[in-house]
Write a structure and sequence with these properties.
Radius of gyration: 23 Å
Helix content: under 10%
Strand content: 35-45%
Number of strands: 32
Number of domains: 2
CATH class of the largest domain: Mainly Beta
CATH topology of the largest domain: Jelly Rolls
Number of helices: 5
Distance between the termini: 33 Å
Structural class: mainly beta
CATH architecture of the largest domain: Sandwich
Amino acid sequence: MTSTILGRILSLATLAALPVGLCLGGVLQVGTGGGTTAPGPWTSGDAVSAAFTALTVDPAKFGDLYDSASGKVGGGMVSGDLYYAFTARSLDRAGDSNLPMGSNALNPYSPGTSFAGGQLVGDSPSLSVSQAYGNWAMGYNIGANGSGPNTYFGNPIRLDMAPARVALFEVHVHYNASAADTATITLRTYDNLLGQRQPTSSDVATYTQVLNTASSDFSFSSFQFISGHADTVPSTRWIFSNVVFAQNANEASDYLLALRNPTTASVLQASTGVCTNSPCDWTSGDAVFNAITALTVIPEKFGSLYDSASGLVGGGTVAGDVYYAFTARPLDRAGDTLLPAGSSANSPYSPSTSLAGGQLVGATPSLGLGQGYTSYGLSYFLGLGIEGPRGDFSPRIDLAPARVCLYDVWLHFNASGNDTATIALYAYDNLPNQRQPVGSDTPTYTRYMTLTGDFSFNAFRYIVGHADTMPTRWVFSNVVFARDAASAADYILNPPLPPGGTVIAIY
């Protein structure tokens, strides 16, 4: 039985990815999963930038808005309207005022020599929306590397960037056949969302502002995400969602905000992804923890697997199987061996005094997967991670910011004995733009492990912690629970595209 299940789990790594384009209603084309920018260190001269193409125009999707002679949307003599939306969050930079509660002015770094944004690209880069070079606030610029005309949102107050603030931009571009194009940007900022997660339609924006840009040529054939800096502190990383293009106002932003619904009956319950912020500064004694509940069990979703007396899935005398999957990537920590190309041993920080993972929680926290406290490699922990049993996957695979891991777990609940967890770990190295893996990607490493214990649960959480002064932030995807071996990981690797759109979790 075990070998059969593991074979089915392993086969997920070769599943074909679903098309990323979606033509439902007014949604025209959707990008390829967002990503993270991470510019290298500046030495001298011009700004250093990291850029990746998030979407290349499919002409058939844009209809009359596409000019075949120029090969661009809005090119030639095209007139008409187009809307696009995406979200952006700074991982490192902060402005100096109007910061969310818990953020510090000018901490960790002044952003006055940095830039970032989602940018239209035609004959040259044009409209970029997020942070213009030299500005300390949310804004736009027209041109490459933050240069050219630019301004920031400031009506009625300036809205600064901060790791605890995520911004949703929806841009309305009006193409003029015989004059420069115009654009209106609507900015919604969300402060202190639990787990720095992606906003959903039920969230209320902290601030909303509208800004008209200078007129320019906004025709494009692709869309890119960029960030960069001209100082010696290479901390200008940003996380971006998918970009979505649509025909009418609110359609693109609604697509991003709509909570994704499972498209198969086998999927029981799914959550939204999170980005754990570094826990409070360590002072002395025990490790500092930051735990975020990613999913609270809805009893009716799990049917006979839920024990009402104990209030736990797999509790009491329940016997049966359930599967779950999620992905994890460290933003700061690295191990010392088997690092992806371009990574350095023990850089940026040795992880031996930190812990992180996705963890089942029942009467007490039980199975956690990610990194156990004092472990140098990808590992498991049982309990709080600092006190209970823990151990590396063997042969050891170390954690690194250029490595993302997919955990696919089969839980077998026993009515009269310990439960069993069979874990498949797939490690993907150097995915473009640190994006989420898809079904067509091939894992660099694969490991298996079997553990026993009481794995009954009523919640699932993401947790990070440390006992030193170094940061330990992690990015986690959705966690997905399902009734068969294929559906949970398939949901992560091949996100469904239901009518009305999908949520794009920040990974």
